[in-house]
Please model this.
Amino acid sequence: MDNINIKEEKNEVLDFDPLSLIENNISDIICIHNPDGCYRYVTGAIEKILGYTSETLKGTSSYDYFHPDDIEGVRHYHAQALAGRTGETRIEYRFRKKDGSYCWLQTQTTPVFDSEGIVTKLLTVSRDISDRKLAEQSLQESEIRIREFAEAVPDYSFIFDEDGLYIEVFGNENLLSKPKEQYQGSSIYQILQEEDATFVLDEVQQAILSGEKRSCIREIRMGLEKRFISGHAVPLNYEVNGKKTVAIIATDITEQRRMERMLQVTYELRRRSDFINDILSGRASDENITYLSSKIGFDLNVPIFACMFLSNKIHFNQVDLQGEKLNSVQKSKDAMIDALRDIPNSVAWDCREGIGVLCQTKFDADEWIYNKQLASHIRETLLKHDASIVVSVGVSDVHTGIQGLKNSWRQGTNAAIAARCQVIEGMDIVHYREAGIFQFILELLGKDAAKEYIERNIGKLIAYDREKKMNYVSTLEELLRGSSVRETADKQFLHPKTVVFRQKRIEKILNVNLGASHTRLALGVAIQLHKINNI
Model:
C-alpha cells in the first residue's frame, strides 16, 4: 500500500472526459470493470503499453496483474469507490506486462452509479508513467547517494540561501554545536556568534555575486570552544523559494593547527635548548653576551636565577631509555615546557636532566624568598598542565652573564636533587643555600669516586639489608639526622630497644663509632649519594 499514490478529486472537474477517450481511442488504456474487478471492456493502447490484446484481458481479474506489493492498496481504494465514499481518484501502481516485467500506470477511476445510487461499475483511464517513475527513482537514488557520501566524509557541509538561512546540513553531527534539526530553517545568526555569522554570510553573498568558489580559514566559536575551520563556499545553480543558494564545505583543522603550532614550538624549543646546553657545556665559543642573549631570547645582562625541575615523568637519567619510551618522555617534556610559555620575564629549556627556567629578578637581601615563591608559581602551572606529575624544584642564587648562567644551572640542579631526595622534610622546593652537602653533588656525580665512596662507607650495610630484607640504612639515616632513640623508633615503627640494638649492630657491621662527628658526616654523604644513584 505504501507504493500507491492516490490523488482524490471529489470536488474537481476531470481534465479529460473518459467517454471521449473511448471514442477517440487515444494512447491511453480505457477500461470498464465489474464490481469484482473483472475487465468488462478494454480499449485504447493496451497492446502498445502492456503487450496484451483487449480480448485477452476481458473477463480476467485486474488483481491478477497488479504487483504483489500494490494489490492491497489498489483493492482498498476500489472498495472505497464501490462504496461511493470517493469521487474520481488517481492511483499510481505497478502492472505486470505480457513479457513478465512491470510498468507504472497512473489510473483515474470514476465510479458509475445506477438510478438508486449504487455503483455498478468502475470506469478507469490509465496512462504509462514508467519513464517518469524511473526518472524519480534515479533522482531519489542519486539524492540518497549524495546524502550518504556527505554523511560519510569527516567534514560537514551546509546549503545556505542568499539570506543566510540553513537549507540542508550534512556531515558528522558530533562536529556541530547543535542537533541538525535545529539548523534547518534557522538563520546563521541563530547558530553562530554575530561576528562569525556576518563573516560567513558575506562569503555566501560574495560567492553568489562572483559566481566563483571562495575559500578561507577562520577561527570560529562552536558552542563553548573555538575551532579553526577551513571553508569553501560554492555557488549552486538552483534556487529555494526564489532565492539563490550556496554550498559551504567546512573542515575542522583545529587539531592540524595545534600540531603545526606544536611542531613550530618544538623546533624553536630544541634550537633554544641546544644553544643553552652548548653554553653550559662550553661548546658555545662566542663570549659576546649580546649575541648569546639574542640566540636564547633572554637578556643575560640582567640579574637572573634558575629554577630546575625534576619529575617522575622526565627522568633524570635518560641514557638507558630507547625508542618509544624515550620519545614519550621527550614529548612529555616538550608539552611541559610549552605550558610555561606565558610565565613573564622567563625562558624555559630542556636541560636534558630535567626542565630549566631562567627568570629575571633583582639583587636583594630577601630575593631568595621571592624567587622561591616564583618557583612555586611555576610549579603550580605545571601541575595545572598535568596533575599526575610529581615535581621537585631547585632554586639558584642570583647571577649575571654567561658564567652566571652556568652557576645558576649548577646550583638549581643541585638544589632540585636535594628536594628530590627529601633531605629537608616536607619541602619539594629547595633553595641552593638550603641544599647543604648537595651544593657539590654534580661534581661528585661526575666522578667514579662516588660509587667507590658509597661502597667504602656503607657498602656492607647495603649488602646486609639486601640479604636479610632489612632497612638498616634507613635507620642509620634517621640516627644521623640527630633524632633521639624514641623519635627514630616512632618513625621506623620499631620498639626503642630495637633501635638501640640496631645502632649497635650497624656500628659492628661498619666497624664505626656513630658518636664521632666526622664519621657521622661521612656516612651522611654516602647515604645521600646512594639515594641519588637510585633515583
Observations:
- The longest strand covers residues 225-240.
- The two ends are 79 Å apart (CA to CA).
- The chain has 18 helices and 16 strands.
- The chain has a mean pLDDT of 80.
